[in-house]
Design a protein that fits this description.
8-stranded parallel barrel; alpha/beta; globular; 12% strand; TIM Barrel
Length: 285
């Protein structure tokens, strides 16, 4: 961190000032990337580069359970140092519930130091009520988010969307902080995406209108799904399951700095013609 600050102080012109000069708006962190089992050094490097763009870092799948425990704790501690909240993926939660070890799982998550757990019923059936799970998590200082959708039942239908909206509201009423719309690692033949990967904007809009873009996160594991969601919703859509090495590409698209985004009016930066000269001249003083 010290070396990073010294690099910035040595220079008179800065990237942030130039972004403002060309009309790129300030945005809060709106991407939740996932760690599918990177080594700690790789994850720490991505945090150093992109922590300011991360809303929540998902320590994904069950990889963190079988990795060396010191490495797992190191990664969670690194995210905390950069003030990035962490969330465990929903798979271990579902298995813990199925194996009747939910209290032990919650105890472990709290001890590891994560901020939040993801709950779901993507490949198992839920035994506990949402209020019970949120209460148990809260007693351990853990937030809860809930994932909407099954992992093995294909693309959504209108009836499924109706059911998931009801289920999502139940979890929010119980105290969950956010909802996640399932897309797995392929965004193809699942959730909002048909077998060819085509995006169902009408279904996505139903989730967004019901819950709001701050509350509902859309899994976007590849370029096609990421661009489709931002093309439809604009720069304010909250994306998750973004691979760490793809995070910067997502964020330049979100800001209209990608060639395919710059040609779209709702993503292209809106320049204030008085700002560029003033911003850069101030940077030179």
């Amino acid at each position: 961190m010290k070396g990073r600050e010294e690099f910035i102080l040595k220079n008179r012109l800065h990237t942030g000032e130039f972004l403002r000069a060309i009309g790129v708006p300030w945005l809060p962190p709106l991407s939740s990337p996932f760690d599918p089992g990177y080594d700690p050094i790789t994850l720490e490097s991505h945090l150093d580069q992109s922590a300011h763009l991360m809303s929540v870092l998902k320590i994904s799948m069950a990889c963190w359970l079988v990795a060396d425990e010191n490495a797992t704790r190191r990664k969670v501690a690194a995210a905390r140092q950069y003030k990035v909240p962490t969330v465990t993926g929903g798979g271990p939660f579902e298995i813990a519930v199925a194996q009747r070890q939910l209290p032990a799982y919650l105890d472990l998550c709290a001890d590891i130091g994560v901020s939040r757990i993801e709950c779901g019923e993507g490949f198992t059936e839920m035994r506990n009520k949402p209020t019970e799970i949120v209460r148990m998590a809260g007693e351990r200082g853990l937030e809860v988010q809930f994932e909407l959708g099954k992992k093995h039942e294909g693309s959504f239908t209108s009836d499924i969307v109706d059911s998931l909206i009801g289920r999502g509201q139940e979890w929010l009423d119980a105290g969950a902080v956010q909802l996640v719309v399932e897309a797995r690692e392929s965004a193809q033949g699942i959730g909002l995406f048909d077998p060819q990967g085509e995006f169902n904007a009408a279904f996505a809009n139903r989730f967004a209108k019901t819950f709001g873009l701050h509350t509902v996160l859309f899994e976007a594991p590849n370029k096609a799904s990421q661009f489709a969601l931002m093309d439809f919703f604009g720069r304010d859509v909250h994306l998750c399951n973004v691979r760490l090495e793809e995070l910067l590409r997502v964020e330049i698209y979100r800001r209209g700095l990608h060639a395919d985004a710059f040609i779209k009016d709702h993503l292209r930066p809106k320049i204030n013609y008085r700002a560029p000269e003033r911003a850069m001249s101030q940077a030179r003083r």
